[in-house]
Amino acid sequence: MRLNTRIIIHIMGLLLLCNGSFMLLAAFASGMYKDGATLDIALAAIVTMLFGIMAMFYTRGHKKEVKRREGYIVVTFGWIVMSISGMLPYLFSGTIPSITDAFFETISGYTTTGASILNDIESLPEGILLWRSLTHWIGGMGIIVLAIAILPLLGIGGMQLFAAEAPGPGGDKLHPRITDTAIRLWLIYFGYTVAETILLKVAGMTFFDAINHSLATMSTGGFSTKNASLAHWNNQPIIQYITILVMFLAGSNFVLSYFAFTKRVQRILKDEEFKYYFGFIVIFSALAALGIYFRADVAVSEFHPMVWGKAESAFRHALFQVVAVITTTGFVTADFTSWTPFLTVFFFGLMFLGGSAGSTAGGIKVMRHLIIIKNGILEFKRTLHPNAVIPVRYNQKTVTEHIVYNVIAFFVLYMLLFIIGSLVLGFLGLDFISAVGGAASSLGNVGPAFGSLNPVSNYDSLPDAGKWWCGFLMLLGRLELFTVLILLSPYFWRKR
Predict the structure, then answer these.
(1) How many degrees, rounded to 5, is the angle at CA 211 between CA 205 and CA 212?
(2) 3-state class (DSSP) for residue 337
(3) Tell me, what's the pLDDT at 301?
(4) Is residue 96 predicted with pLDDT exceeding 60?
(5) pLDDT tops 80 at residue 246
(6) How buried is residue 245: exposed, middle or buried, by Cβ count under 10 Å (0-12/13-18/19+)?
(7) C-alpha atoms less than 13 angstroms from C-alpha of 11 in its C-beta half-sphere
(8) CA angle, 407 as apex, 404 and 410 as ends, to 5°?
(9) What three-state secondary structure class fits 286?
(10) Greatest mean pLDDT range, 144-158, 369-383, 396-410
């Protein structure tokens, strides 16, 4: 069975068209602020859209059918095509002249990692800053989910795409029709973004900063408009509490938000993953807060003003960092690697947790951890009762063996890629702590890491090969490993 390459190119064209229209939005903002980059961003938008229109025009007579193989190609190459076209505003405006750096910044945006190579963010034109944040926002929900909402209009069924794109092992569908699902998710996503923008503006941010941070928070990205990230507002705790709340919502399953809006609160309270996700944040924040309060030597300074006292400051910084790392947002209010050795290792462990399935967060995801732990505990019972059939249960439903095997395979593969990722970074000259931290952070789409890549530093010190490698790890992590790796297997490309 041959691949339907025409439909793949057609969808790529559609994605470029979407990408170009978002660039026009950044160009419009650039014109409003008269930052000098308007023409460059507009040119990038025109070039991107031209390529999109050409791709769609040349494949207009395509067979309107997306099978599973095409679905995987569209998702992976969709992200790569978006990242290549997303470099153009940086290159054309000269804000990031190097192709390697521009690609790293762009793929870090689309994969919502939030790792940056920029040393002086505040000197960038407003249009470029907005484009940086928009790459997060587009990638957050998945440009493909947006495409799912559009494809049926073109007479193409998008279910196959959702199978490859849906974050997490099991997709809890809101509605049998995938288009409706995508539209509802986007409405929630957009609604949250607008709400946070208003709240941050009221709390004391400028409108520009508020909209940029909302785009980055909702997508669990982490790009900020300030060099110090959210630490810039350490003297305004209310701003940080708003950000914590939205990070928490963005890291929970969007389906639950839909249930909340349709007044089906019982569904949320009964959801096992949500209970554990909430519980983990509470327990880990309490541990970190106690560690900061009693053990960390944090003096009152410009960086730690302790506006509402030492106890509140310890609680807020602990809660902020824990939520930022678990949801893989990567915003920073403090350097968690300088607190205590225990807390450094503690935050390293949190990088492997990840948010909820069906959220914009990266990482392994709470649901997978739950299934692995439950299966591990049941192995004791199975050892004692070898003939008994003891299934894993999740949300009072039996989890099929296929899903359990998939989750275990994912976990093993994830840890293997983390080891390989660390080895490659070590080979490229990074010290042990930086290599291990960089691999964990890139693969989990977290952002800040350890060693030379710590929260108050950035990824500029990486060699060029290291930047491309971290970009590859980000893509793997964002698209749930299998989606990308399956394209590297010879079996996938065999004609059948």
Answers:
(1) 95
(2) helix
(3) 58
(4) yes
(5) yes
(6) middle
(7) 34
(8) 150
(9) helix
(10) 369-383
